[in-house]
Amino acid sequence: MLTSKLIFGICTWGMALLVSIFLRLAGIIHPEPFYINHLLVWFLVFAPSTFLLIYFLFNRSFSVD
Q1: What span, in angstroms and rounded, lies between the C-alpha atoms of 32 and 64?
Q2: Whole-model pTM above 0.70?
Q3: pLDDT exceeds 90 at position 31
Q4: pLDDT in tens, 46-55
Q5: How far is CA 9 from CA 6, 12, 20, 48, 65, in A?
Q6: Rounded to an integer, what is the distance from CA 34 to the centroid of its chain?
């Protein structure tokens, strides 16, 4: 019997495998170094946690006890 943890683990590892394959193919197609946009890097690092913070704050303020 499949549990939700097992399904979540399989989906997570599957997505990581797809990202890894995509990055490998991108490296083969474009072997020169990429220009790094620092704003994009900061956005990718802090946007998910900021989004979750805002979501939980709004969810908490609108919840009924």
Answers
A1: 55
A2: no
A3: no
A4: 999 999 999 9
A5: 5, 5, 16, 20, 33
A6: 20
Local confidence band at 45 (pLDDT 50, 70, 90 cut-offs): very high
**What tokens were used for 11?**
């989906």
d(CA 56, CA 60): 6
CA proximity to 34, closest of 44, 42, 48, 23 = 23
Q: Residues 60-64: contacts with CB within 8 Å, 24+ apart?
A: none
- Identify the three-state secondary structure at position 23: helix
Distance between CA 59 and CA 42 in Å, rounded?
25
The Cα 45–Cα 38 span in angstroms is 11
